[in-house]
Design brief:
With about 130 residues, the chain is an all-alpha fold. The chain is about 70% helix and about 0% strand. The protein has a domain at about 50-125: Orthogonal Bundle (Histone, subunit A). The protein has helices spanning about 5-20, 30-45, 55-70, 80-105, 115-125. It is elongated and about 95 Å long. This is Histone H3.1/H3.2-like.
Length: about 130
């Protein structure tokens, strides 16, 4: 028997039709994947003890602030241990500040942290807080 093109197409189309019927499409919500990834990242950073801000950009900012505050002084170098201590204190302050701001947003029955939470947090901490000086 001789095959013809029409027969070959009908065989191929019947195979693809069967495979399309047996194939199931899974719809994945991208927001759930993104939320899971964010939560995984949060758990990772909670377990880690390393510094979150890169050292070199932080050192540049510290040196820039030093030259702005003390333009006449010839201090151009900072010890690595002093920078590390300053960075640890800075990160601890920022983490505490954001934790308090999140508590304020939860008190407002919101999930999203807004700028008004940060402004209120600064006011609640008072004038003695380092950020308000």
């Amino acid at each position: 028997m001789v095959r013809r093109k029409a027969d070959a197409r009908s065989i191929d189309s019947s195979r693809t039709a069967r495979s399309d019927k047996s194939r199931t499409d899974v719809v994945v919500d991208r927001r759930k994947i993104q939320k899971a990834h964010i939560l995984k990242e949060i758990r990772y950073f909670r377990k880690s003890v390393k510094l979150l801000i890169p050292k070199l950009p932080f050192a540049r900012i510290v040196k820039e602030i030093m030259t702005d505050l003390f333009p006449r002084s010839d201090v151009r170098r900072v010890q690595e241990s002093a920078l590390e201590a300053l960075q640890e204190a800075t990160e601890a302050y920022l983490v505490q500040f954001f934790e308090d701001c999140v508590l304020l947003s939860q008190h407002g029955k919101r999930v999203t942290l807004q700028i008004q939470d940060m402004i209120l947090m600064r006011r609640l901490r008072g004038r003695d807080d380092i950020i308000n000086k």
